[in-house]
Amino acid sequence: MRFDEAYSGNVFIKSHPDYNESEAVIYGMPMDWTVSYRPGSRFGPSRIREVSIGLEEYSPYLDRELEDVKYFDAGDIPLPFGNPQKSIEAIEEFVGKILADGKFPLGMGGEHLVSWPVIKAMYKKYPDLAIIHMDAHTDLREHYEGEPLSHSTPIRKAAALLGPGNIYSFGIRSGMKEEFEWAKQAGLHISKFEVHKPLKEILPTLAGRPVYVTIDIDVLDPAHAPGTGTVDAGGITSRELLASIHEIAGSDVRVVGADLVEVAPVYDPSEQTANTASKLLREMILGWIK
Fold this sequence. Notes:
This protein is α/β, with parallel strands linked by helices. 31% of the residues lie in helices and 18% in strands. It has one domain: Arginase, Chain A, CATH 3.40.800. The chain is built from 8 helices and 10 strands. The strands form 2 sheets. Strands 4-1-5-10-9-6-7-8 form an 8-stranded parallel sheet, sandwiched between helices. Strands 2-3 form a two-stranded antiparallel ribbon. Strand 2 and strand 3 form a beta hairpin. Helix 1 packs across helix 8. It starts with 23 loop residues before the first strand and ends with a helix. Pathway: Amine and polyamine biosynthesis; putrescine biosynthesis via agmatine pathway; putrescine from agmatine: step 1/1. It is an enzyme of class 3 (hydrolase). InterPro entries: Agmatinase-rel, Ureohydrolase, Ureohydrolase_dom_sf, Ureohydrolase_Mn_BS.
């Protein structure tokens, strides 16, 4: 862990050089050890940082500038290649330190399994935590081909820890029939196909509660984000996702941490996906870090 000095590699635009003075910490979780289709998301965090230099520092949506928020870029967590269990342990320890220091954790993935250890660390601090999950996929499997550590399992694991009724999934359009049936029986909230409209209806019920938001970039239609491991047609537009981020920002929900995962730059030579991800992160920083 490096909290004593600024990360020596490329950093997200306008990152603050001092950890102790910062309100939030950006960090990368470069892991794609358990993906079921195409690897490459371990390169997502570094590329999102690199393209962020092309961002405007001002958000006309929120009328704020990046210099209004002090956030420290801690770089990527050093994860043992090919070892999901030790990687999960390292991520949980890393985020636990950030939370102990009273800072807002904002993670970049990496495959979606990386959200699971973050949620565990968040739950230790916020036992009444709720999860807002935006994704193409349910991620409710108990295992994938017999392996419980899979990027298709993090929301099922979170439901077991927090209780299914505290999980709110949006934009879902892919998953096993059994996953949808289990969610319905267990009381997990799934909004299929759309994000903004059902999210707007749900947010008042979460007013005042600590909420962790996890966004899989594949909630976007492949036309908007082709650079991801498991593309799935029929997704939302980048405009709808931005509107959803802003809807959360304008609500009474208390966002206490977030992540953006599954950006795989190798599948998008136009860099459209990485550039979109960097803009989404800008809006998350300006909208959710009060």
